[in-house]
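Render this sequence as a predicted structure.
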Amino acid sequence: MVSHFQQTLESLQKTPHTWLITGVGGFIGSHLLEALLKLNQRVVGIDNFSTGNPENLKQVQREILAEQWKNFLFLEGDIRNLEDCRRALTFSSSEQGSFPVEYVLHEAALGSVPRSINDPITTNATNIDGFLNMLVASRDAEVKRFVYAASSSTYGDHPGLPKIESIIGKPLSPYAVTKYVNELYADVFGRVYGLQCVGLRYFNVFGPRQNPNGAYAAVIPRWFSSLIQKEAIHINGDGETSRDFCYVKNVVQANILASCAKNAEAIGQVFNVAAGNRTSLNQLFLQIRALVSASVPEAGSIDPSYRDFRAGDVKHSLADISKAATLLGYQPSHQILEGLQESAPWYLTSSS
């Protein structure tokens, strides 16, 4: 039986549309770009490369056909600048002409709970001011749909599991505040201006092209890199902290489904995007070590050390994905081990 997602992909291939991806040079943004260009869509991308990487765009170019790459228009710009946002909302090509953007995939943001604790002002400027700029520009351009990256951090201190979209607690970090404000602004723009918005609360996304370096690197790429380099591994807390790790291809699916959803009940909603399963940090470490040691035998003898629990983090996280399944037709294609297995070759190659 053909899945709803597969039907959506087949429909897109028959009818090209014009998309804008903010943060296109980032980890998730570049995967969205690759998926859309392979579907022969027209894509505008904007990035200021504060956290994105031009190499991600080069990798996408290597993965697709030359004629598909011609459907991509890149603008180096900053979402904190309203005029940059406005300029990004038109695709213009000497070969194809000009096309107004129909769908916006808003990925640009400053991630990381620790970063937001260290620098709440810059996090606020990017995640709230930049978000509002994109909403205003999208409203004025009369785009069909505005799909944005929300965050599981919005659940804050609410202890209940699994996380259900309608029940949240108090934010535990400036980052969490900004992502909750995004949801509030999107809801208001839908009610006041009629802008069709859909929020996707990502749960611990991972996959190829995720930066393993720097103080704010996510745990999976950092551990891959450290084990490949035969470096020490540190776990915050006792290692029983658990997360619903979500492979990036699941995120791509959710963005496309949210953009193309014809169900009126899906508009103006926020959805959990995750695998729907929980993995502890201790379990995660063992899975990554096994994958790395197959190519780097010395990594098999590395054991983690434990240190204090990190401020602003929650102990456990697990998503209820039934709402996305019901209203969007979302079905995760990858669980964590499948995602780690697909990611391992990229980390092994990029770290060598």
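Summary. Residues 264 and 327 are 9 Å apart (CA to CA). The first helix runs from residue 4 to 14.
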